[in-house]
């Protein structure tokens, strides 16, 4: 057994100075000759060393098979790779008679020495990396999986995080636009993985055929692209690490928000707060180093990129337009006309001849139908019989005063259906006025006993305010020379004398 360091140093000193012979030291210290030789040859205990590896009679014949299995595993997804237990069962089928522990240690050793070694990369100002990650969030009480768009600047270690319903073209474009606005400019070179949103075909290690949507984004902001080799995410390892950091630091515990707008406001605050952190090795905060990053940025263009996916379509006979497997309404005047649907991350905008005719909140579900009841109010005048069965009006929350008005209009009608038509004229006022304002006007009309649509229109018009206009002669001096004679009421008396009085 080796001695402690104090004894080791003392024996070496005595040997150097010749204070005791080797035999005396062996007898006094109770050590073997070989131990004394090691003390003389090594400045500190060298530890136990095996001259030859220990034999493994049971596992040895199967080490080559284990190494081959581990090597082949690198070609398959991580979730379908062999565990040590599975390897143990496979070599047992091949005749292995040993225990599981030996197999587990052999697997650990082989994986350790076969791990890939990466080259540290230099990060220059003005370069960025983009990636998507996923996390859970409770939105409006529902636990949902959300997509996180992340753009990181390796030089300054600044990053931007935004949450979207899913990873798609719209979220990519919107994420870029928001990130560029957050950083105050456009990185001149951005690295990506090989998402189908960006790449339509892989031609070579770094050569790609890009999608039209990505080319439009690139043309707008004028940055250079760089794509990692397939299954080489380490080429953008900074943003890969930021995905993990943001998930663990910004979304733990699981955030509870009313909508994604609230979640994105929270993430934006956290990104700004993170800019105050001191950057290791740079001698300043991230915000200070970002100023150096910005020297290599491309300036923001005058206008923001229209971050949407456009799809030409046609409104059907129900005045509905289909986009992304959902139906959205347009005004009935646009039925059977060509429509361009523009899908943003939060809304769908429908245009006819470049004029916006409808706006709807974006639905990320499937096979939904979304109406704006105001689109169908003109159709009610032509089809008043559909009033009680119109699907676009099924969810319209009308106050009790509207039902009272309808009953009184129907009760006072001179011709069948006239009261219903008048009631529809009142509903059509919702095309230009808010529900709250029309409700107040209807309540005032009921109180005054004036049920006609014209009376309600009058109540909706704002009262005139300010003093009455005064006619001035400024610029009309020629009118000052005109004289107008005063009225002569004796003329009226002459008419009475001639029998002109009305009976």
From TrEMBL:
GO terms under biological process: DNA integration
Pfam families in UniProt: Mu-transpos_C_2
Leader sequence residues: none
Sequence ranges assigned to domain Integrase catalytic in this UniProt record: 121-294
Domain of life: Bacteria
InterPro entries noted in UniProt: Integrase_cat-core, IstA-like_C
PANTHER family: INTEGRASE PROTEIN, TRANSPOSASE RV3428C-RELATED
NCBIfam families named among the record's database cross-references: transpos_IS21
Name of protein: Transposase
Species per Swiss-Prot/TrEMBL record: Desulfoferula mesophila
